Amino acid sequence: MEGIFCYAWTIPVAVGLLLLGVVYARFLWHLQARWKSLFAVAVILYVGGALGVELISGWYDSQGGGASFTYTLITTIEETLEMAGAAVFIYALLDYLSDCVEGVAIKFQSAPDG
User: Fold this and answer.
1) Contact in structure between 53 and 81 (CB atoms under 8 Å)
2) How many helices (H) and strands (E) does the chain have?
3) Distances (CA, A) of 35 to 26, 59, 100
4) Rounded CA separation 102/104 (Å)
5) Residue 13's domain spans which residues?
6) Measured in Å, how far apart are the chain's first and last C-alpha atoms?
7) What distance in Å separates the CA atoms of residue 34 and residue 68, rounded to the nearest whole number?
8) Is residue 108 part of a domain?
9) How many angstroms separate the CA atoms of 55 and 65, rounded?
10) What is the tens place of the pLDDT at every residue in 57-83?
11) pTM across the whole model
């Protein structure tokens, strides 16, 4: 394949993400606006990096770009967006849980000798 679909895996992933969005739509719809926004930002960042920038990367690679400074820059942007999306998602989850759960206790114990 050529163009934005140079990396064929992007097509089934896009379909899978659409199905996942349908499955979680009811959950997201019932959230308060704060968490809807946080989860939406997380999804936009992560999917924008993982799928959106990957399409750009595929187009660049199919044009003969290959391993170059520009390709490395595109890949860096992709990975940065993915990590930012993951960080926002973790923050959104912890913020949501802090509203749902009164307290959390963590207990550390040493491993038994022997």
Assistant:
1) yes
2) 4, 0
3) 14, 34, 12
4) 7
5) 3-99
6) 58
7) 41
8) no
9) 14
10) 888 888 887 778 998 999 999 999 999
11) 0.79
